[in-house]
Structures are given as C-alpha cells and as structure tokens.
Amino acid sequence: MLTTHRKQHILAVLQRDGQIIAKTLSLELGLSEDTIRRDLRELAQEGLLQRVHGGALPASPAVVDFAGRQRIAPQAKVRIGQAGARMVRPGQVVILDGGTTAVQLARHLPPDLVATVVTHSPSIAVELAQHPSVEVVVIGGRLFKHSVVTVGAAAIETLKRIRADTYFMGVTGIHPDAGLTTGDLEESYMKRLLSDQAADTVVLASAEKLGAASPYLIGPVSEASSIITERDVPEKLIAPYLDLGIPVVRA
Fold first, then answer.
1. In CATH, what class is 3-59?
2. Distance CA 128, CA 53 (A)
3. If DSSP codes are grouped into helix, strand and coil, which group holds residue 75?
4. How far, in Å, CA of 8 to CA of 17, rounded?
5. How far apart are CA 137 and CA 184, in angstroms?
6. pTM for the complete prediction?
7. CATH code of domain 66-250
8. Contact between 50 and 212 (Cβ < 8 Å)
9. Tens-digit pLDDT profile for the chain (251 aa)?
10. How many Å is the maximal CA-CA distance in the chain?
C-alpha cells in the first residue's frame, strides 16, 4: 500500500472509530508498528490527528486563534452560551473562561441578574461592561494573544484568593480517556487552577470538541461536574460521559 493510500486509510478509520490503535492497525494492514507510528507522526505534524500513547485521536479544530474559533459552529455556541447563562443563580460568584462560547454565555446573562463574574478574558469583561448589576472582577497578567486571555504568575496569585461557585470552562478537546485538553501549556495550568478554585466545573463543548484531543492536559474528564453541548450531537459521542456519571446538557 502506498504511503498516501495508507494515510487516507488511517484517517478513514479515525473518522469511523474515533481512535487509532497502532498495534491493531498494523496487524490489519500487515505492516510494522513503526511504519504506522511514522504515519501517525507525520499526520499529527499536519494537524490531522492528535497522537496519544498507543495510537491517535481526532485533533480538535478549536486550536486555531480566537478569530478562527468565531467561525466554528457559531449557532451552536449561542445555544450553549444560553444554556450556561441559565445555570447562573443570583448572588453567585462564577468564573468565566475565555473563548467564543463563554462570550455567548456572558452576552445572555439576564439583565436583572445580581452576581459576580470573575474572568481572565478581556473579551468577557468588555461584554459585561454594560451589564447593570453584574460585578466584574478582571484577573490581570500577561495577555496571551492567541486566546485573548491573561496568563502568568500575576494571574495565578490573584486566582488563589478567589473561591467561586461555578467555573465555566472552555476546552479544545474532551475525551473520556485523554481527558480535558487545550492547545497551550500555560493555558492548561490556568484552566486547572480555575477549576480548583470553583465548587463545580461546567465544560462548554460544541460537537467538534467531543472525542477530540489537544496536546496539553488540563485534567481528567472527571473534573467536569457537567457538560453543555449541542442538542443534535450523536448519542455515541455523549454516551461515554453519561456512563461515567457526568450529566450532559443538550442545548
């Protein structure tokens, strides 16, 4: 089998099964595991999959920059944001992550809501600047321009002084085995700390993030108190999380 045809087959299997197991595929094709691993490595370099121990998972398209993410599933993100906004109760302290879905959540908070929103996202702060009764606490630090959020030691020190009711987390990938992942190492540390500072963590995940993985681990999928995703997402994509006892809200 030519290399091109072999790679096409790998991508077809990945789309069909949601994962690649190198040993199984090598036996199926009658090739060495080294050959399969080389193909996986080259496909990963092209951004077509995410290598994991023993094989590969779908790569999340959500690792593009903020402007690029705005073009991915815009209507689904509106509905997910609306569902998240309905979870916020009067008097709560909530942490809103950066990201395009979190912006939609901020945009749909009721105008009469009295609550506190903590965020390290200037986009969220600007969205809530005109809200009549939501207090906004902005976490300062170095601006990570790719995701338009603050990161670094200053942000971490401030966050350690905050205890929140709920953290609405944005991810680029969520997988029952690979966990909650994102595309930047420093962001992964920030998201983990944000989760640690909240009683509950609600993961905002449009369909392309389910079953996908990115290079940097935030934490195991068990960190999620619940997941909000699209209403028409296939049952097979949410079944693993339900099996783990994680509630899934279809928006």
1. mainly alpha
2. 42
3. helix
4. 14
5. 24
6. 0.83
7. 3.40.50.1360
8. yes
9. 678 888 888 999 888 888 899 999 888 888 899 999 999 999 988 888 889 888 998 888 776 555 555 555 578 899 999 999 999 999 999 999 998 899 999 999 999 999 999 999 999 999 999 999 999 999 999 998 888 899 989 899 999 999 999 999 999 999 999 999 999 999 999 999 999 999 999 999 999 999 999 999 999 999 999 999 999 999 999 999 999 999 999 99
10. 65
Q: Show me where the domains of the chain are located.
A: 3-59, 66-250
The two tokens of residue 63 are 């690792």
DSSP-based three-state secondary structure for 1: coil
Q: Bin 160: left if φ > 0, else alpha if -120 < ψ < 50, else beta.
A: alpha
The residue behind tokens 């963590």 is 201
In this structure, what is the dihedral angle of CA atoms 99, 130, 90, 171, given to the nearest 10 degrees? 0
Between CA 179 and CA 100 the distance in angstroms is 21
Query: Coil, helix or strand for 189?
Result: helix
Same fold, 3-59 and 66-250: no
What order of strands is seen across the sheet that includes strand 179-182? Answer: 173-175, 179-182, 216-219
| C-alpha dihedral, 190 to 116 to 168 to 76, nearest 10° | -130
User: Rg of the Cα trace of the chain?
Assistant: 19
Distances (CA, A) of 235 to 109, 181, 248: 29, 22, 11
Q: Which of 225, 215, 217, 213 is nearest to 173 (CA)?
A: 213
Q: What angle do CA 160, 210, 177 make, to 5 degrees?
A: 75
Sign (positive or negative) of CA dihedral 231, 107, 149, 164: negative
Report helix, strand or coil for 94: strand
